[in-house]
Design brief:
There is one protein chain. The protein has a single domain, classed as 2-Layer Sandwich (Pseudouridine synthase). It contains 4 helices and 11 strands, in the order E-E-E-H-E-H-E-E-E-E-H-E-E-E-H. The strands form 2 sheets. Strands 1, 2, 3, 4, 7, 8, 9, 10 and 11 form a 9-stranded mixed β-sheet that branches.
Length: 195
C-alpha cells in the first residue's frame, strides 16, 4: 500500500506525540501498519508518502537513487534567476555542499491556500514563490539554501516526488495511489538535474 498525504502545517511526520504540542499523523485515519516515507518538518507542508512496504524509504529517497523532489518555497524578497543561480551549481551550507538543483521563479505566482497560522508579513518587503527540484533532502535543506543566497523561506511545500504531483489534494486529506501513480514516483530520470 502506498498513500499520498497533503501534510498540513504544524503536523509531525510520526504517529506518537513528542511533547512539543504538535499534531501527529494519528489523527488522520490512516490504515494500520503504515509509516512515513521520508520526513517533512512540522513547519513544512505538502506531499508526504506513507506505506506498509519494507524498504520503500530507501528505494525512493536515498540520494544514490537520485529520485527528484520538487518544492515550492515562498521567500522574503524578489529574487532573480541571477540571485538563485548559486543554488543550481550546489552551495555550501553548514558542513556540506548541496548537489546541483533546478531552481526557478514561479511565473505566474501560484495561488496557494492560506496557511493557519498565516506567515509573518512585512508590508515593505514583498514575497515570491520559487520552485526547487532536488535529488537529496537533508534536514531543513531548502530553508538553509534560500537563506544562504539572501532570501529566507517563509513557507515551504513539497509539491512533487518523481513525476507524481500533489495536484489538488486538499491539506489534511490522503489517497491510496493507483499502480500508474506509483509508477510516476520513479519515472523521473535521476540524471536530469544538471546544467
Amino acid at each position: 500500500m502506498l498513500i499520498a498525504f497533503h501534510k498540513p502545517y504544524g503536523v509531525l511526520c510520526q504517529f506518537t506525540p513528542d511533547g512539543s504540542g504538535h499534531r501527529t499523523l494519528a489523527e488522520f485515519g490512516f490504515p494500520a501498519g503504515v509509516y512515513a516515507v521520508g520526513r517533512l518538518d512540522a513547519d513544512s507542508e505538502g506531499l508526504l508518502l506513507l506505506t506498509d512496504e519494507a524498504g520503500l524509504n530507501t528505494r525512493l529517497l536515498h540520494p544514490t537513487q537520485g529520485h527528484t523532489r520538487t518544492y515550492w518555497s515562498q521567500v522574503e524578497g524578489t529574487p532573480t534567476l541571477i540571485d538563485l543561480h548559486p543554488l543550481q551549481d550546489g552551495i555550501q551550507i553548514q558542513s556540506y555542499r548541496t548537489r546541483p538543483a533546478r531552481v526557478r521563479v514561479l511565473d505566474p505566482q501560484p495561488e496557494v491556500a492560506p496557511r493557519q497560522p498565516p506567515i509573518r508579513k512585512r508590508q515593505s518587503i514583498p514575497t515570491t514563490w520559487i520552485e526547487l527540484e532536488l535529488v537529496e533532502g537533508k534536514n531543513r535543506q531548502v530553508r538553509h539554501m534560500t537563506a544562504a543566497v539572501g532570501f529566507p523561506t517563509l513557507r515551504l511545500q513539497r509539491r512533487r516526488m518523481g513525476d507524481y504531483d500533489l495536484g489538488t489534494l486538499p491539506p489534511g486529506q490522503w489517497k491510496e495511489l493507483t499502480s500508474e501513480e506509483r509508477r510516476q514516483l520513479t519515472l523521473h530520470n535521476p540524471n536530469s538535474v544538471n546544467h
